[in-house]
Amino acid sequence: MKRIITSPIYYVNDRPHIGHAYTTMITDSLVRYFRLIGDDVFFLTGTDEHGQKIERSAQAKNKTSKEYADEVSAYFKNLWDYFQISYNRFIRTTDDDHKRGVQHAFLKMYRKGDIYKGEYEGNYCVSCETFVTSFALGDDTHCPECGRDTTLIKEESYFFALSKYAPRLLEWYANNPDCILPRTKKNEVIHFVQNDLQDLSITRTSFSWGIPLPSELGEPKHVMYVWLDALLNYITALGYGNDSSKMDYWQHQYHIIGKDILRFHAVYWPAFLMSLELPLPSHIAVHGWWTRNGVKMSKSIGNVIDPKVVGDAYGTETFRYFMLREVPFGQDGDFSQRALMDRINSDLSNTLGNLLSRTTSMAQKFFGGSIRAESAQIRTLFATEMDEIESILASLPELAQQVALHRYLEELWRIFMLSNAMITQYEPWKMLKEGKDEQVQALLVLIANALLKGLVMLYPVMPQSAQKALAIVGFECSPTLFLRMIERKEWLESFTLKVCEPLFLRITEALMPESSSSAALLEPKHTTKPIAQNKEQQKHQQIDVETFAQSQIRVGTIQHAEKIEKSEKLLRLLVDVGEEKPRQIVAGIGKSYVAESLLGQQVCVLCNLKPTKLMGVMSEGMILAAKDSHGLKLIAPVAHITAGSTIG
Ligand code: MSP
Fold first, then answer.
1. Rounded to two decimals, what is the model's pTM?
2. Across the chain, what does the average pLDDT equal?
3. Which candidate among 28, 579, 591, 597 keeps its CA 20 to 30 Å from the CA of 276?
């Protein structure tokens, strides 16, 4: 299938920060995923170089707008090359073919009667390059988006008849459930179209750094509004208005964008496409912001982090894994170096790294590196685990298509965690002593298969690391070769595993200087912190299912319980929540339960609560309980269920 997947094109008024890198990394991972499954993907990125904001930034540096754009655009391009972004075209809106394409589109819309001449009077935000309506402004003059002061402008302008497209836009949202992802973002767009859709001023006369109108119109004073110019890059890059050579990619489209530019993409852009009689985007996928202490990262506030500094310190792919895994797609997340280190240590070093080294060293030690077992035998011995791995793998395509890459990675990691747990549970070294060589080989072949399949699916997010790890599992070839095998649920029967150096080192000290940002990077400890709300707001706030899914609540079985000395109500529990080791949890239930009575009791455990010390004892989760006038009772499943089963 042919598709186009795009990142936004970046303003060249300033250098990139990790927010920009995030958008591009998501886009690259999605592109690589679709290429992995065999699609022919055109990946478009680039720079947005016209408009008043860039003109002013260049003037401030005593450069011409073009000189300044050349410099900053090159910076973006080099950064994307450094991060091995696999784009097909890095477009610049100062490219000649783009300019011709934009003029062609303008003329087409004009001839169709969708563009007319008038006068614009109203407020303009130069920073957002947007006209702010009096409806959005209220009594204020500050931009509701970025908070900066707007300028009142009154000038001759051409208008695009946007309001006439409102009914068709509303119909499009209604008939295409996935046109905006996550789906929860659609309501604000519909609200805007229903309440505030005015015709759009699309030319400016008060400055000159923009694409001139087609000469046929004889309007040398006018330049195009930068958003009309910029949005059209998505088709001019494919030859629109020139040779149209690549327009066949314009069939299945993903636009990856940040939430600040949703309206431009979900309202203006489809209306322009309707006017040009071209297909509308299949998906506009909207991510949240990276913040520092709850404030959007931006150069003017001085809280930005240079992505290259992070990449140099921690590795480009490790950083990328963190960005995509840490924050649920669509939500904001607070960046901290501590969270980055924790994520690397827990997921990459402990879970995946450990699994690789345990598996290879056992295969080496027990069988000289070569292991073999028939699929039928593996299934006889480990049917449940095989089924679970299959069902996780089968869930990944939908998650990728929804751009829920945090969930995609979370699920993928369940395969690695399950494999680690099997080693702990079956203790192959003991099985060997009992003469069960065949069973041990079957177990190791199963785990090698799990690694192989998991690493293939990790490839889109961590291409180089996945390939290195695949070589350890015995395959130095393209991951695409294994895709059919995954789809057909086939299992390989023999592996030759290599001895491996640790792929992901544990990080014990911060690797980045604290001065990488004006604020201390090690604080706060935890990411994805919601912007503060007062209690009353919280009580009435409804959450969407993705927010709920952030709480990892699992069934646990209490394996050990004892009173904590000097405390009346705290018990120290060891609870099996389906992981390698039981979790130590300190629970304030000592007044309601005697420790010994809890052994074997099943409970519900909030597993991703930030660990904390209570009476000097580390607690790694929370046992759920409810209290009424009769006292406190633990919440438990009504029938026995495997420890570690997810609640939700
Ligand atoms: N030039 C326009 C896009 C035109 S697309 C036809 C633009 N450029 S931008 O450089 O300001 O932003 C580019 C992307 O970076 C946007 O998707 C924006 O959401 C993203 N980010 C900028 N700051 C960000 C964060 N702090 N966090 C996450 N992403 C943010 O808008």
1. 0.80
2. 91
3. 28
